[in-house]
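Why do we care about 3D structure at all? Because function follows from shape, and shape follows, mostly, from sequence. That is the central idea of this module. The next example makes it concrete: a single protein chain, its amino acid sequence, and then its structure expressed as tokens.
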Amino acid sequence: MNKKYPLAILILAGSVSVVLLIKKGDQEEQRHQGQLLGGGRDNEEPFEKLSHGSSGQIPRQSGGGVREVNDIEALRKSLASLLSSEEAFDDRAEKAAPIIKELAKLLPASEVIDLISGHLGDGGERDLLLPLIFAESTETEEKLISVVSGLTPDSASVAVIGLIPRILDKERSSELMGQLLSENPEQKILDTLTHSLRVELSNASANADRLHEFAKLFEGMEGDAKMKFFESLSEAASKASPKEFWSLLDNKSGSENYDPEWVEQARIKISIQLRLNDPRDAAKFLIGNDAPDREIAHAIAAWEAMSPQTFQNWLADNPVDSIEGKAGIIAGMAIRAVDSGDLKAAKDYMGEIDAPDLRDELNGRLWKLEQTLVQKEVSRDPEATVSDLASGRSSFEGFWLEEAMGSWVAMDFVSATEWYEKKWDSLPPEKAQFVAAAFAKQSAEQGDLETARQWAEFIQDPKTKERIDVEIANAAGQ
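And the structure:
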């Protein structure tokens, strides 16, 4: 079907956005938000003759700017005829859009919603027309917010597509946005707000100025609504204007409006987006802006993974010891070493890191890597792996004997039992305890609690003993 005004419904980032593709010759212009379904207030086009309706035309204003009652009635009839036709919904919606916009200027929003619901029902196709009503209505934003609050969360999340741009452009935007979010705290509304803010920031020719306008809006809000708005703003700004948002947060540091925890989470979002955009640029930006070592580390790891040679060339020209973000750079190389399976290099880098938070994260990554490598060794040759760990010949630490023995017991209980019966008497206590821990855990999982407790008596390491005792207690239902 050749359509002059094809309508597309897009689902973006978990929220619904309505977009009209207006075809002009061989080109299509995509209009968002304030230009919903056939143009916004600043882009009105004359409504030509419709293919349906009692008069074939949208009634125009009569003398003095006052509408006649029969003009509204004609609009009602035209709308009813269109929405009740057998055409595809996109075709009906396209033709109905000008009529809905006219009715929204003449009638309360709730009445227009009821008119459409009478033909399309609640939800579904009806909801896709709601942004028109809220964008074009002559009612106050306060009144429209109360109408939104009477809708279901699904319907409200679509309706506010037409309302949010109006609120953002009002002098009382902080108060209005606070009312909207306080009365409609659902995540769906936040998702729509996030998308709206992102579109506003992406489309603005001077998005830094727009970002500061939104920051002022946020600063004027209160309570939970303020926190929710900042959440949406940080999500949107980190994607649309990450560096500008970082700069704004720097300038606002210490302000009572900007909770340190909120700012920290916002910086994490910015760092993630910068890495997705360009890891090399992200690393240089974060180092140059005194970012937390953890964020520098992840950017460095992503850069090295993307372009190892470029990273090494940069490292050759920028000795780590001369850089302020030294800990983050080394941690990044450690993360990359772990990700690539180079356990030795990762441990060497670990020896140069003092920051507790980085060490905690890297220890967790190292533990997972070692566990994976031990399990691979066990699956290849369980007896040799266990024997090497028990004798100290393995490259892995002795405590991995529990993991190796446990994997072997799960794979082949008989062979694992025969090995321990032959080797038990020759095992030093510090090694035997890990074999005992593996059998204690296996016995507890099978419900043999008495045997599990007997094995647990051989465990000397306090942390291992406590962990196994907890597992036995859990198996006993204590």
